[in-house]
Amino acid sequence: MALSKEEKAKIIKKFAKNEKDCGSAEVQIAILTHEINELTRHMQEHTHDYHSKRGLLMKVGRRRKLLNYLKENDVVSYREIIKKLDLRK
Question: Is residue 68 part of a domain?
Answer without folding.
Answer: yes
